[in-house]
Amino acid sequence: MRVFKFGGASVKNADAIKNIGNIIASSDMPLVVVVSALGKTTNALEAVVNARYDKKDDPLLLLKGIFDDHLSLITELGLDDKELNDCLKDSYDEVIEYLSENDTGEDYDRDYDQVVSSGEIWSSRIVASWLINEGLRCKWVDIRKVLITDTRYRDANILWSETEARVNFVFRAMEADFYLTQGFIGGTAEGMSTTLGREGSDYTAAVIANMLNASEAHVWKDVPGILNADPKWLEDALVMKNLTYREAVEMAFSGAKVIHPKTIKPLHNKNIPLVVRSFMDTGDIGTIIIGDEHENEDLPVFIRKQDQILISILSRDFSFAIGDNISRILSLFYEYGIKANMVQASAVSVAVCADDDGRGIRRLIEELENDYSVIYNTGVEMLTIRQYTPEAIKKVCGGREILVEQKTRRTVQMVVKA
After folding, report:
1. Which terminus of the chain has fewer Cβ atoms in its 10 Å neighbourhood, N or C?
2. Which of left, alpha, beta for 202 (phi over 0: left; psi -120 to 50: alpha)?
3. CB 80 within 8 A of CB 146
4. Residue ranges of the domains in the chain?
5. Average pLDDT of span 56-78
6. Tally of CB atoms within 10 A around 72
7. What is the DSSP letter of 261?
């Protein structure tokens, strides 16, 4: 058993979906295939939720535009599938009904998950229909009934024992050559949709691979593997053919976008290789992640996180020296669902660099201002260089104002003005 994961870029249009069919048709079975929402659908569905709260745009009109794009894709694929059309229409109506019946705006995260999760349902239904239409023995699975989570909306935790039993029951039934399901989403025992955090489809694939004791997990991307920098940022980026689990985790948590930070642990626990490959050049093996010894120690790795905010929290009475306030501050970040990407503490202040998500970060700042003096810089970037050299630092930071810097023997992190 192997697990394949295809991201949004690999299902963005009709040609991309046909390419998935070619990859699967030439692969050994059995497989579990995990797909993401089409292209930028998740961002578009986020806009629907935000419109509902901001009252600036009509959320139902925005939702209709997204749904119509999916109907156009069905037409482009030449699919005449009544069951597909009925299923998508039912899902669309469920979202409309939810928005109509829950108009109080009391729980943004819960509302987000009920709306945004539809992107994966719609895309996976279309892909499954195309594959079946091509004569492949595919069975579609609603992962929300298999991957059971708690109610921490937008960053749900998987209930492992319940999920593992369901995963083995569903995906080992051998009712088809391969199963196709969704990444990023799950469901509570009560039937509410949840999401696992942005870009969480990789994590879904890793969890399924772990629970099925898969031989490999493959993540298909629009890049030739894991590079030592984003090629859209640094044109001379190089592919790293081999990585250890540890190096991959360090890169992911520093902000590398190729894999989700939670992906590695389930695979490491079962020593399952993760292969990151290009769906545009299937003959290239890409990057293989396995093992515990460090690789590529002489190759600097450049990671850039944009749209950051640097928050400086200052004590009003010098009480930071005791330390209790630091724990409270970081617990507030967790409570508001804000990931601290860098933390630097002094005797009387704490500086935290985090993703600037707009709504959540502003609520957090208001909470902090009840007890602390708070100042912040928006529009900053966090740069991480692993295996850094003076030349590597100069390459990305030359002439830029550094607001915060941290160094270890192998890694340097800097918050700089954009």
Report:
1. C
2. alpha
3. no
4. 2-221, 301-417
5. 95
6. 11
7. T
Categorize the per-residue pLDDT at 187 as very low, low, confident or very high, splitting at 50, 70 and 90: very high
Q: Are strands 373-386 and 411-417 parallel, antiparallel or unpaired?
A: antiparallel
Q: What sections of 30-81 are H helices per DSSP?
A: 41-54, 59-77
Straight-line distance from the first to the last Cα atom of the chain, in angstroms, rounded to the nearest whole number: 45
The tokens for 257 are 């976008």
Q: Tell me the one-letter amino acid at 271.
A: N
Q: Which single residue is written with the structure tokens 């493959």?
A: 218
* Tokens standing for residue 97: 């009904």
β-pairing verdict for 402-407 and 411-417? antiparallel
Hey, what are 388's tokens? 């850094």
Structure tokens at 297: 């120690």
Q: Which CATH number fits domain 2-221: 3.40.1160.10, 3.40.1210.10, 3.40.50.720, 3.20.10.10?
A: 3.40.1160.10
Least reliable range by pLDDT among 125-134, 204-213, 260-269, 311-320: 311-320
Do the beta carbons of residue 243 and residue 295 sit within 8 Å? yes
**Nearest in space to 210 (alpha carbons), one of 153, 258, 274, 129:** 274
pLDDT, position 337: 84
Query: Count of residues for the chain?
Result: 418
Could you please state the CATH topology (level 3) that the domain comprising 301-417 is classified under: VC0802-like (3.30.2130)
Q: Which one-letter DSSP state was computed for residue 201?
A: H
Instruction: Name, in order, each residue with C-beta under 8 angstroms of 330's C-beta and a sequence gap of 6 or more.
Output: 340, 343
What percentage of the chain carries pLDDT values higher than 90? Answer: 75
pLDDT in tens, 356-382: 987 889 999 999 999 999 999 999 999
pLDDT digits (tens, 9 = 90+) for 303-352: 999 999 999 999 888 777 666 788 889 999 988 888 899 999 888 889 99
Distance between CA 305 and CA 381 in Å, rounded? 6
Is pLDDT at 258 greater than 80 in this prediction? Answer: no
Q: For residues 215 and 243, what is the distance between their CA atoms, to the nearest angstrom?
A: 18
DSSP-derived 3-state class of residue 100? helix
287-289: strand order across its sheet: 138-140, 178-182, 31-35, 2-6, 216-221, 274-278, 287-289, 242-243
